[in-house]
Amino acid sequence: MNKKTTKITAITGISIVVANMIGTGAFTSLGLQAVELHNTFSLMSLWMLGGLLALSGAFSYAEVGTAVKRSGGEYAFLSEIYHPLPGYLSGWISLTAGFAAPVALSTIAFMEYLPVNVPYPKIAGILLIAAITLVHSYNLKSSARFQNLTTSFKILLILALITVGLILPQGEVNAIDFGSSYFSEITSAAFAVGLIYVSYSYSGWNAAAYISEEFANPRKSLPIALVGGALLVTALYTLLQYVFLRHIPPAELSGAIDVGNIAVNHMLGKNAAAFFSSAVSLLLISGISAMIWVGPRVTASMAKDHKLWRFFGSKPGTVPVKSLWLQFAFSALLLVTGTFEQIMVYCGILLTISTTLVVSGVLILRLRDTSDRYKSPLFPLFQVIFLLISLWMIVFALMHNPVETLLGLINLALGCVAYYVDKIPKCRYWAKKD
Question: Which of 2, 266, 293, 371 lies at a 20 to 30 A Cα distance from 408?
């Protein structure tokens, strides 16, 4: 296979960001939030706050990414700004949860939205992940074409759904509700946990930072991809959730996973819902594809610095094929062993920790480095917003979801073990030599 890469443009960067962001969360997490939150303002506030969080992070990552100038996302950024250990742990998170978990979640949702019952759905899901991994194992040009095509379909489908949902009169029985107390809901633990679900739904706003070296002009293209993608998705998400609330009865919304399918069923009937289910399944392929593309770049970046991972590295200008299939293995494992909600919370907690450290790094860079690079506007407003919301989510997650939090801490402990094992001379000798 021809694995030699070419450079990509800002348009493909936006496509990667949008594809990473719009996935299972857009069509599934509203039902989980509606179990304990009922006020429409509360639910819409979640999605607008999630968009503000993503935009604040995008501005911060654009500044850090144009300063560090290396692919690998949090791994490269934290290693440069702080110390190799937090960088390594963030890379470990990306490898074991940050991309593998969303791939598994999107695959679960893909099977949920299929209009037919698939025998052995987990096996079918593993085969789907393997097929998309194979596409991205070829070369960067084929990856970009596949990604742009599937993302364009995704945006058109969501725009069509929003348009129809706004034009049609709202359902006689719907989830629009302003009766419950807005203040009591937004200050509750349920709101904070709901924001974790939303932050998962918005996860991917930083996707372009993982492949910064693959842009033709990173200084210009990276900020456009990050900020432009975050703004576009925020608008689509907010309108989409409002459409769902207008057309789904509260009893059917609470706890539901296939929220989009339920909404279309009420708007256009069962035949249209069956068609929509098929369309959403195809839509989710775009998100799976984007995460499969981006995630292995972290492992490949780690392989440049750590002998223990050297086997999964790749030569400059080539696709990291071994890293692609390592991520496939983690995704398949999570698909077989995890439940939807547990994976979502577990993944959200770990990702929030990593991104919080990167955004904090903007403050450090401003003190340490005055070189010419992209500068986040209104500094330090967006950084403070991001840090306050993120810390709030982490604290409530510790209290409200102790099991998932414990799993996250165990994962970090395993990452620490792997880091120090890599430092043992004998283990470094065992690893593949330069």
Answer: 293
**Residue 1 domain-assigned (yes or no):** no
Which of 180, 231, 214 is closest to 18 using CA atoms? Answer: 231
Give the CATH number for residue 57.
Answer: 1.20.1740.10
Whether the CB-CB separation of 326 and 312 falls below 8 Å is answered with yes
Looking at the chain, the whole-number percentage of residues with pLDDT higher than 70 is: 91
| pLDDT of amino acid 398 | 75
Looking at the whole model, is its pTM more than 0.85? Answer: no
- Residue 430 CA, chain-centre distance (Å), reads 34
- Report the C-alpha gap between 297 and 249 in whole angstroms: 43
- Express each pLDDT in 213-253 by its tens digit: 777 777 788 888 888 889 999 999 999 999 999 999 988 98
How far apart, in whole angstroms, are the C-alpha atoms of residue 101 and residue 327? 10
64, 43 Cβ separation under 8 angstroms: no
Residue 166 counted as domain residue: yes
Number of Cβ within 10 Å of residue 183's Cβ equals 10
* Residue 2 resides in a domain: no
The answer to whether residue 214 sits within a structural domain is yes
- Tens of pLDDT, residues 92-136: 887 777 778 778 878 887 887 777 788 888 888 899 999 988 888
Three-state SS string over the chain comes to CCCECCCECHHHHHHHHHHHHCCHHHHHHHHHHCCCCCCHHHHHHHHHHHHHHHHHHHHHHHHHHHHHCCCCCHHHHHHHHCCHHHHHHHHHHHHHHHCHHHHHHHHHHHHHHCCCCCCCHHHHHHHHHHHHHHHHCCCHHHHHHHHHHHHHHHHHHHHHHHHHHHHCCCCCCCCCCCCCCHHHHHCCHHHHHHHHHHHHHHCCCCHHHHHHHHECCHHHHHHHHHHHHHHHHHHHHHHHHHHHHHHCCHHHHCCCCCHHHHHHHHHHCHHHHHHHHHHHHHHHHHHHHHHHHHHHHHHHHHHHHCHHHHHHCCCCCECCHHHHHHHHHHHHHHHHHCCHHHHHHHHHHHHHHHHHHHHHHHHHHHHHCCCCCCCCCCCCHHHHHHHHHHHHHHHHHHHHCHHHHHHHHHHHHHHHHHHHHHHCHHHHHHCCCC
Q: Are 100 and 295 in contact (CB under 8 A)?
A: yes
Q: Which pair of tokens denotes residue 295?
A: 């995630």
Quick one: angle between helices 340-368 and 381-400, nearest 10? Answer: 150
Burial 187-213 (b: 16+ CB within 10 A, else e): ebebbbbbbbbbbbbbbbbbbbbbbbb
